[in-house]
What we know:
- The protein is mainly β.
- It has one domain: monomeric porin ompg (Porin, Beta Barrel), CATH 2.40.160.
- Helix content is 0%, strand content 58%.
- It has no helices and 14 strands.
- A hairpin with a 2-residue loop joins strand 9 (153-166) and strand 10 (169-183).
- The protein is globular and about 55 Å long.
- The two termini are 19 Å apart.
- The model is unreliable at 8-16 (pLDDT under 50).
Amino acid sequence: xxxxxxxxxxxxxxxxxxxxxxxxxxxxxxxxxxxxxxxxxxxxxxxxxxxxxxxxxxxxxxxxxxxxxxxxxxxxxxxxxxxxxxxxxxxxxxxxxxxxxxxxxxxxxxxxxxxxxxxxxxxxxxxxxxxxxxxxxxxxxxxxxxxxxxxxxxxxxxxxxxxxxxxxxxxxxxxxxxxxxxxxxxxxxxxxxxxxxxxxxxxxxxxxxxxxxxxxxxxxxxxxxxxxxxxxxxxxxxxxxxxxxxxxxxx
Length: 251
């Protein structure tokens, strides 16, 4: 979700000739509804540091390549991140799984409308066995909604389902998130987000997170961001806290 007034270029519409700032789907969990303009290529990536008790995990890369297929659809390719996990006993590292999916814009958030998009894809078992789940495809589908209340404030909401894998055991994960975007200055934006997951492992544990962050638009085609967050009431091996930074670049 864009953090500069929700989908700040929401008014860009599919037919507008005006060049609008890029609208990334990072740094929050909530994806926006807009797709990349035809004839352009957008790459988003960064680094995240997670802590769960004595365990530390570093995720480097988090690269998402977004390539428009039409005025209403884009291809989304997740490049494997490099993971390093260490605790009091051992340190393991390797590449995570890759991702392949698409976003379909159903209704642009123009003229006060609620923007609607559908995202579908799957995690592919291409990662290292030491750090990644290798139990086959892990498909997911997500409904994204966006609403601008003013030029400075907007809300993004995602609801979805994923069929995930935990040590070879399959489970269903239903998730939802809401991200409030607030434009602080012309180029500086912020977000405040809540995320809920129904089941994050085969044991049936649920999870809740809160997060906030900032994004700064360097120019029309480059944005940088930072974020921090923490788990709320989670009593298992899920991240207690996390922090990250990244950038989004459009060609």
